[in-house]
Amino acid sequence: MTSACPYCRSPFEPEDELTTCEACSTPHHTDCYAENAGCTVFGCSNGPVDEPRISISASDLTASALHSAAASPSLPTPPPPPRSGASTSVPPPPLLFRDDTTRYITPPRSLGFAGYNPPPPAVIPAYTPRRSRLTYIMLGVFLGAFGGHNFYAGYVKRAVMQLLLTLLSCFFGGIISWIWAIVEILTVKHDNDGVAFI
């Protein structure tokens, strides 16, 4: 015996009224059996009777087509097929979707498309703020021995070398770093990103 009604799929409770199909002996809720007008098991002979099929004759179809053609406005005629031997240009296939790698996915060749992939969109560079030349010069004059001007301009390797030269020589190499900084503030016109100072 099944533990659930095949029509509503809910389990049987002790207080439920049950109706058992006479043909397949499957229990149902009485309400479910009545609502379905018979057994709900597929292929059971006590199942609901199929609705009678509707038959339409050819004359009914013709009359219906004439009636709908008269009621609807005339549609434009399709263009004639191309002549044999004439080259036909196939428009590019539609773009289906775009994935995370900015490649455009198109329908496969089996659908008749020749693998058309449009060029990727132009890459927009990130915004880099323009740095002041006056600030660069002032940092080079006052903190050049510690690489302050190079930290400001984004030249981190140079700045670390100047800072280490000053600190590891117990500030005796600071004179060399400071002269190096003076030469840089006279010759460097761009920051590390290649953007000219303002």
Describe what is shown at a glance.
With 198 residues, the chain is mostly helical. The chain has six helices and four strands, in the order ββααββαααα. Helix 3 (133-143) packs antiparallel against helix 6 and helix 5 (156-168) packs antiparallel against helix 6.
Number of strands: 4
Name the quaternary structure: single chain
* Helix/strand/pairing category: mainly alpha
Helix and strand run: EEHHEEHHHH
Describe the overall structure.
By secondary structure, this protein is mainly α. Among the domains are: 1-49, Herpes Virus-1; 133-187, no CATH class. It has helices spanning 30-36, 58-71, 133-143, 148-153, 156-168, 174-187, and strands at residues 18-20, 27-29, 97-98, 104-105. The chain has a two-stranded antiparallel ribbon. Strand 1 and strand 2 form a beta hairpin. The radius of gyration is 42 Å and the shape is elongated. The mean pLDDT is 77.
Present the secondary structure layout.
Layout: E1 18-20, E2 27-29, H1 30-36, H2 58-71, E3 97-98, E4 104-105, H3 133-143, H4 148-153, H5 156-168, H6 174-187
Antiparallel strand pairs: 1-2, 3-4
Helix pairs in contact: 3-6, 5-6
List descriptors.
198 residues; 4 strands; mainly alpha; Herpes Virus-1; two-stranded antiparallel sheet; single chain; two-stranded antiparallel ribbon; 6 helices; 33% helix
